[in-house]
Amino acid sequence: MSTPNSKTCLTGATGGLGSRVLHHLLHTLSVPPSSLVISSQNPSPSSSASGIETRHGDFLNPSTLPSAFAGAATLLLVSYPSIAHALRVTAHKNAIDAAVRAGVTHIVYTSLAFADDSQAAVMQAHLETEEYLKRTCDGREGMHYTIVREGIYCESWALYLGFLDPGKAVGDGERRVVRVPEGADRGVAWVGRDELGEGTAKILVRKEEFADQTVLLSGGAAVSLRGVAELIGGIMGWQGEEAVRVEEMGKEKWVDAMVEMKTGKKEDAETREFMEKWYTTYPAIEKGELDIVDPLLEKLLGRKLESMEQSLRKQLKDVGGAKESIGQYAK
Fold this sequence. Notes:
By secondary structure, the chain is α/β, with parallel strands linked by helices. It is built from 15 helices and eleven strands. Strand 5 (about 105-110), helix 5 and strand 6 form a beta-alpha-beta unit.
């Protein structure tokens, strides 16, 4: 007689969000390591040493996935770390199909906090994945999903603020300019990555409460891009003539400026393609897609969330925080 699937399989457990989910499962919620499995493209010996079974599972090599997910009742599907649309969707579909074959009965997918009808390029692969996941589960008895629309990380602010680097701006007022195409005064409900990890971990262990739902985990307040720039200026001591300036430039001028800033050249096809896609984020901000404050995360954590100012003060103790943000998220 076969043993029913009972484990929780985590993907993306070494990444920025997934590692915090794992941390909180183990150390906040005291989930036994023996009940967890990690599926990774490059399994880490440290996970095995902690008592968690690690398996090789590569989203882009689907033949590796059924064995990676074997014995799992629940799969945490952390979105594939690339903004390449077709690649990301293929990776997610491979994982969903393999989970079905492995007997997984509940998939928790980490999406992003843009709207259902968003035109933001970064959201398109998420929307396509969400629809595929819903269709997959709707057609199978006993199969459930939870889509977690993760809020915009406090730690990713530099991507939205024209790739501002406070380290370079310390002695150069010309670098204290935040250039955006539009949306400077519309709010974003920024939220800390660790708090998202804790909230997602709690959804995993209470998954029945969130079965067949799309939920939003947001910060506790919305702060505009201009507001974030002002906070940075205050923290860095840049006031008056030294304050951070915010300029709305329109699409064409902004793309041109970003290409030159990033490459030192007037033209670079690869960078221009990235910036053209990234531009689509700003009309979504202007439309108010990211300013929704949902109480769910505070309820899950049972406490008030860290504010954007508190997060920035921690990050800007080391002005290299902007480089980390850009390096991690601009892929």
